[in-house]
Write a structure and sequence with these properties.
Distance between the termini: 53 Å
Structural class: alpha+beta
Largest sheet: 5 strands, antiparallel
Number of helices: 19
Shape: elongated
Strand content: 15-25%
Radius of gyration: 36 Å
Length: 542
C-alpha cells in the first residue's frame, strides 16, 4: 500500500518518495531539475527525480575490495611503441605463428624488414592493413582496431588460416655461446637440434608426441625417448639426445623422420583480447576524493597476464604457474599444494586455468590461497631460480602475484577445537555470578539456561560470522569480538531476573495479568515444582 511505501521511505530517510514510481515516468529520460547550486541540492534533486536514470548509491567498499593484481608480462614479448598504442581503440594479441626465419637464421624484430614480414602475415590472417599490426616476438604480434565492433568481429571469426604448416627441421647440434647448458660434453655427438617447433611444447609433450611409441620412427628404431632427453632452448627450438651417435646421424638423414617432422610442424594460430593498462596518477577523485585517478597507459595487457578480478579478490594471495603440462588437472594442483594449507582446498574455486580465446590451454594457471602465510609456504617449495618440480612432468615456473596497492590486513588467527567449543557453549563468562545464584535459587536451573542460550547461539548466524568476524571485516567494528553475544546473554539474564515470581512476591509482571482490584491468585506456584520435574525428565538423555 501507499502507507507502507511511505513508511519504508521515511524510515530510510529518503525524502520526496511519497508514492511508488509511475511506469510512464520511470522509464523515460527527463531533465534533472536542480534545487540549488550546492552538492546537497544536487543530492536532493536526484532523490526526487522520477525516472530510473536518476539514482544515488552510497559506496563504502572494504579495503580488500580495492586490491588489484600486478600483471606478469612475459619478458620476451615486446610492447608496441606509444604511437601504435594510441592509434587504436581495441587490440588483440596473436601468437603461435611459425617463428620468422630469414635465409635459415632466426629473424630479428629490431630489423624493420624482418618485422614487416610478421606484419604482412598477421595482416593477411586477420584481413587488416599491415600498419595495424606490430610485431611482439618472432612468432607473435599485436593487432589494433579502430572500433570495438572490429575487434569483436576478429575475435569471433578468427584468422583466415587456423593452422599454418611449417615443417620442423632437424640437424646435428653444435653448442653455441649463451645456449642453455643441456647435456655433458661426452654426449654431444648423439644430440640433435630441433628448430621451428610449434609454440607451447614441453619436454613431456615432445617425448610423447614427436616420435610416438610403436611408430616407424618411435622406440622401435630410436629407443624409448623420455622427457629428460629433451631440453628447450627457446619456445621454438629444443635439443634431443639419442641413445647413440649412430641413432642421431640416422635421424638427421632419415626421410621417414623428415616426413614425420613435416606432419609435426602444424602451427595453430592463437589469440586473446588485449587492452591498455590503467595507470594511477597519484591523485584521487570522486565525490569524496578517495577514488584513485587513472589514465590510459602505454602498455598493453593481454588476457591471462593477471588473474581475473573476482578470482584475485576472493583469495588472500595468488601465485602464477607457467609451463604446466596440458594434462595437469585442478585436482593434481590442489593435492600438490594441500600441504601448504590449513583447511581442505577448494578444487574448483581455487584454481584458474589461463586459456586462449578459443578455450585451448596455454600452460598457465593461477592458484589462490585463503589464509595468510599459505602462499609463502608454497613459494618455499621452489628452487632458488623459481622453478618447481613434482607438479606434472615439466619443470614449473612459479611466481607470486603482487598487489598493485598496499592493503593493511589483520591476520586471521586459527582457533583450536577447545577454543571453538568454548565460544559456542561457555555463556557463563559473560554473566555475573551473583545474578546466576539468584536465578538458581528461584528454580531456574543451569541446564535450562544452557539449553536456551545454546539454541540461540547455534541457530542464529548473527552470533557467528557477524559477531566473530575480524573487526576490520565486520559491519559493526565498534563492538568487540563476541560483543553481540555478550549483550544477548546479559539482557537474557536481566530479563529472567525481572520475571522471577514467588508466592510471597509475585512481582509486577505476574500481577499485571490480574485486574487492579482483583485478588492475585498464587495457586499456579503450587504446580510449578511438578512442571519443573517434568521438564527435567524431558531433558534427560535416554
Amino acid at each position: 500500500s501507499n502507507q507502507d511505501f511511505e513508511f519504508v521511505m521515511d524510515s530510510m530517510g529518503i525524502k520526496g518518495s511519497d508514492k511508488p514510481p509511475v511506469p510512464e515516468e520511470y522509464d523515460v529520460v527527463t531533465p534533472l531539475v536542480l534545487k540549488g547550486p550546492t552538492m546537497s541540492d544536487f543530492v536532493e534533486s536526484m532523490m526526487e527525480h522520477p525516472t530510473k536514470f536518476g539514482q544515488l548509491r552510497f559506496k563504502s567498499p572494504h579495503p580488500e575490495s580495492s586490491r588489484e593484481p600486478v600483471p606478469d608480462l612475459p619478458p620476451r614479448r615486446r610492447n608496441p611503441p606509444q604511437e601504435f598504442v594510441e592509434g587504436s581503440k581495441r587490440f588483440i594479441y596473436v601468437w603461435g605463428l611459425p617463428p620468422l626465419t630469414i635465409d635459415g637464421d632466426p629473424g630479428d624484430i629490431d630489423n624493420p624488414v624482418h618485422a614487416m614480414e610478421i606484419q604482412k602475415l598477421v595482416a593477411t590472417l586477420f584481413d587488416v592493413r599491415p600498419e595495424s599490426v606490430c610485431a611482439a616476438t618472432i612468432s607473435s604480434a599485436f593487432v589494433g582496431f579502430p572500433t570495438r565492433a572490429d575487434q569483436r568481429f576478429a575475435l569471433e571469426f578468427g584468422p583466415i588460416e587456423k593452422v599454418i604448416e611449417s615443417p620442423v627441421t632437424i640437424s646435428k647440434y653444435t653448442s653455441k655461446e649463451g645456449d642453455k647448458k643441456s647435456f655433458g660434453d661426452d654426449e654431444m655427438d648423439r644430440v640433435v637440434l630441433l628448430e621451428n617447433l610449434p609454440e607451447g611444447l614441453t619436454p613431456s609433450l615432445l617425448a610423447s608426441t614427436l616420435f610416438p611409441s610403436g611408430a616407424d620412427v618411435g622406440n622401435m628404431v630410436y629407443g624409448n625417448l623420455k622427457p629428460e632427453d629433451f631440453v628447450m632452448l627457446t619456445p621454438h627450438s629444443a635439443v634431443l639426445r639419442f641413445e647413440s651417435a649412430k641413432m642421431a646421424d640416422n635421424a638427421v638423414n632419415s626421410s621417414i623422420v623428415e616426413e614425420r617432422l613435416l606432419e609435426f610442424g602444424q602451427h595453430r594460430v592463437r589469440y586473446n583480447k588485449a587492452r591498455r593498462e590503467l595507470v594511477f596518477t597519484g591523485k584521487h577523485t570522486g565525490p569524496l576524493g578517495v577514488d584513485p585517478e587513472r589514465v590510459l597507459g602505454p602498455k598493453l595487457i593481454v588476457d591471462g597476464d593477471m588473474p581475473t578480478k573476482k578470482f584475485f579478490l576472493s583469495h588472500a594471495a595468488t601465485i602464477h604457474l607457467r609451463n604446466l603440462d596440458p594434462s595437469t588437472t585442478k585436482q593434481e594442483i590442489s593435492d600438490f599444494f594441500q600441504t601448504c594449507c590449513t583447511l581442505p582446498r577448494d578444487v574448483e574455486g581455487s584454481i584458474e586455468f589461463v586459456t586462449c580465446y578459443q578455450g585451448l590451454p596455454t600452460g598457465k594457471a593461477y592458484v589462490g590461497f585463503d589464509e595468510h602465510g599459505e602462499a609463502e609456504a608454497a613459494m618455499a617449495l621452489c628452487e632458488s631460480n623459481g622453478s618447481l618440480l613434482g607438479l606434472g612432468p615439466n619443470k614449473i615456473i612459479m611466481k607470486r602475484v603482487k598487489d598493485a596497492f598496499k592493503v593493511s590486513r589483520d591476520r586471521r588467527s586459527a582457533r583450536s577445537e577447545e577454543e571453538l567449543l568454548d565460544s559456542l557453549d561457555n555463556w557463563e563468562k559473560y554473566a555475573d555470578p551473583e545474578d546466576l545464584e539468584e536465578l538458581f535459587a528461584n528454580g531456574i536451573s543451569k541446564e535450562a539456561l544452557d539449553e536456551a542460550l545454546r539454541a540461540i547461539r547455534y541457530h542464529n548466524p548473527t552470533f557467528s560470522s557477524l559477531d566473530q568476524a575480524m573487526r576490520s571485516e565486520t559491519i559493526n567494528p565498534e563492538k568487540e569480538t563476541g560483543g553481540m553475544y555478550r549483550e544477548l546473554v546479559q539482557t537474557y539474564i536481566s530479563t529472567l531476573k525481572e520475571c522471577i515470581s514467588t508466592p510471597e512476591n509475585p512481582g509486577p509482571i505476574y500481577e499485571s495479568i490480574f485486574l487492579p482490584d482483583e485478588e492475585v491468585d498464587t495457586e499456579i506456584f503450587e504446580d510449578e515444582p511438578i512442571r519443573q520435574e517434568e521438564l527435567k525428565k524431558r531433558r534427560e538423555v535416554p
